[in-house]
Amino acid sequence: MSTDRPKNPTLDQLRAVCQPPEVKARKNAEHWTAELYLRHISIYLTAVLVRTRITANGVTGLMILAGWSMSLALLIPGIWGPLLAVALSQLQLYFDCSDGEVARWRASQSPRGIFIDMVGHHTTEALIPIALGYRVFLELSAQGTTFSQAWPTLFMGACLAVLLVLNRSQSLMVHAARGIAGLAKLPDTAAARAVPTTTVIGRLRSLARFLPFHKLLHAVELSLIILACSFVSAITGVPGVAEKWMIWILLPACILVNLGHFLSNMVSARLKA
Predict the structure, then answer these.
(1) Which of these, 12, 99, 177, 241, has the minimum number of CB atoms within 10 Å of its CB?
(2) Are 68 and 127 in contact (CB under 8 A)?
(3) CA distances from 142 to 108, 145, 153, 154, 237 (A)
(4) Under the phi-then-psi rule, with left for phi > 0, alpha for psi from -120 to 50, and beta for the rest, what region is 109?
């Protein structure tokens, strides 16, 4: 820990170190909720945490537990499970904001911390569709549906989990490929991620800004969609019916998102030597 930092910092001192302009300006690393409200309140949690002995990696551990708990919450029948999952998704992002702030205040940023953070996000987003598929499987079974009729949705949930992780991993693959090739790290700006609009892929990517479906494939957005589906199922009186259709609609859509992400990477300047 840096010895020239006060043990009882003010909020202004914390903001200057933990929330510098370059952090708030990150386009790919910041979730929209962080810019909207989480960064405004995370500093209060950080102010408490820096006065304790918990490490930045310890805060990341709390973030991971909150994320994994979302999947367990989805196994609670009715709308209460999804409601709890939405609350846990906010708690996960709250810790996600504070772990980096604690690391910056204590000057303890490390590759290990970044790695643990990535593991947390990847596993959280993989477990959500698996838990959702199992939730639908249990509800269909409770209605007397045979195993042969219920298991495809469980399998589709597992396939969706793979696709969600693959989509998130593609961005990391670009950075890994550049590093192995000896190229400099890409700045986290919109310009660095731009695709030439003169290409067909570039034009399609520009159109995607008006229908940003890919942004719905993260933990917070998924939890909100699941909650909406649980309300629909409750209104129709058929448990799991809307969640089932959600899985079957998201799966082919996620295949297209992965394909578009791959082609966008291939034609961009990011993978050019």
Answers:
(1) 12
(2) yes
(3) 50, 7, 15, 15, 14
(4) beta
How many angstroms separate the CA atoms of 215 and 222, rounded? 10
Torsion sign across C-alpha atoms 19, 20, 21, 26? negative
Domains recognised in the chain with CATH numbers: 11-271 (1.20.120.1760)
3-state class (DSSP) for residue 98 = helix
| pTM (global) more than 0.90 | no
At which residue do the structure tokens 């030439």 appear? Answer: 196
pLDDT per residue, tens digit, the chain (273 aa), is 445 777 788 898 898 888 887 666 665 556 666 666 777 888 999 999 999 999 999 999 999 999 999 999 999 999 999 999 999 999 999 999 899 999 999 989 899 999 999 999 999 999 999 999 999 999 888 888 777 778 889 999 999 999 999 999 998 999 899 989 988 887 765 555 555 555 555 555 555 555 555 567 889 999 999 999 999 999 998 888 999 999 999 999 999 999 988 988 888 788 887
**Structure-token pair, residue 26:** 């990150």
Residues 66 and 117 sit within 8 Å (Cβ to Cβ)? no
Task: Quote the CA–CA distance of 57 and 48 in Å, as a whole number.
Answer: 16
